[in-house]
Amino acid sequence: MESPGIIAAFWLLSAVTVGGALAVFLSRNLIHAVVFLVLSFLGMAGLFLTLSADFIAVAQILIYAGAVSILMVFAVMLTPMSARDNSNSLYVVPGVLLGAIVAAGVAFIAVDVEWPVLADLDADRFPTTVSAIGDLVLGRYLLAFEVASVLLLAALIGAIMLVREDEAA
Amino acid sequence: MSDGLSVELAHYLSVSGIIFGIGIAVALSKRNAIAVLMGIELMLNAVNLAFIAFARLGGNFEAAGGDPLAGHVFVVFVLTVAAAEAAVALALAVLVYRRRETVDLDRITLMRW
Questions:
Q1: How far apart are CA A40 and CA A21, in angstroms?
Q2: Contact indicator for A66, B86 with CB cutoff of 8 Å
Q3: DSSP string for B33-92
């Protein structure tokens, strides 16, 4: 992909995404960390758009930047007496070390390996992704689709059961 | 690899790896259980980026009989599982807070011998 717009968008969105993720780590306030996490999710949705994954980008904004971040803000609000300073535990040094090793290792492998890439990258490969994804989900991956629905139902009922106030008390 | 002024699969995979590493660092080193969950969500997001990048740019896949959009379908399932996991984990955090008045992982030592 060599059009200047795609290149500029890639570098800008990568900076936003990685910067947001770094700010989640460095932020000194838990609510600010959630906001930076949303920024990182939105940048990731933009990266999906540069890969012509329109449906996934919209789903990312709806589910991650919308629903999951709201859940996190709710969880922070529902735990008012706990620390809000986003501080690190004793494992910060091994944690950062392991994260740096994984990041450097994956980046090195990504650059070093000659990946088999498509011959014509600029071709309009996916005219419509939504109908193709729908065909796959209700065709070859039907079993996984049904299992996912059961999983969502189990998570829904489980979350309600967990936080329900005990009526007997 | 062609000239430097184009965006390749390796660029996307590098960004994916960096975000995954940051997610590991956040998940391992934060004290608040909700912040740990943020790290896990970052890691899942990084994996999604790798899936989408391979689906768009990776070659030799359709020739092997695969669907070109299988990566997108996998990302849909990852999104589903991540949403379910976030709901249950945050419910657990609220439950622990109700019992112990804290979600500080250094102070939840019930299972330490």
A1: 6
A2: no
A3: HHHHHHHHHHHHHHHHHHHHHHHHHB-SSTTTT--TTHHHHHHHHHHHHHHHHHHHHHHH
CB contact under 8 A, B76 and A98: no
In chain A, the domains with their CATH numbers are 1-89 (1.20.120.1200), 125-169 (no CATH)
Q: Look up residue A150 and give its amino acid.
A: V
Per the CB < 8 A criterion, the answer to whether B32 and B77 are in contact is no
CB contact under 8 A, A89 and B31: yes
Look up the pTM and report it: 0.90
Q: Write out the two tokens for A27.
A: 């932020």
| Spatial distance between the Cα atoms of A132 and A127, rounded to a whole number of angstroms | 9
Chain A within 8 Å of B107 (Cβ-Cβ)? no
Tens digit of each residue's pLDDT (9 = 90 or more) over A74-127: 989 988 877 778 788 888 899 999 999 999 999 999 888 888 777 666 556 666
Identity of the residue numbered B22:
I
Take residue B110 and report the two structure tokens written for it.
């019930």
Residue in B22, B34, B76 closest to A21 by CB: B22
- Say whether A117 sits in a helix, a strand or coil: strand
Indicate the DSSP class of residue A65: I
Give the separation between CA B61 and CA B54, rounded to whole angstroms: 9
Full set of structural domains in chain B with CATH: 9-100 (1.10.287.3510)
Rounded to 5 degrees, φ, ψ at A162 are -65, -45
Alpha-carbon distance of B105 to A88, in angstroms, equals 10
- pLDDT tens-place string over residues B36-60: 999 999 999 999 999 999 888 877 6
Which residue in B13, B37, B76 has the most chain A C-beta atoms within 10 A of its own C-beta, making it the best mutation to test that interface?
B76
Q: Do the Cβ atoms of A129 and A52 come closer than 8 Å?
A: yes
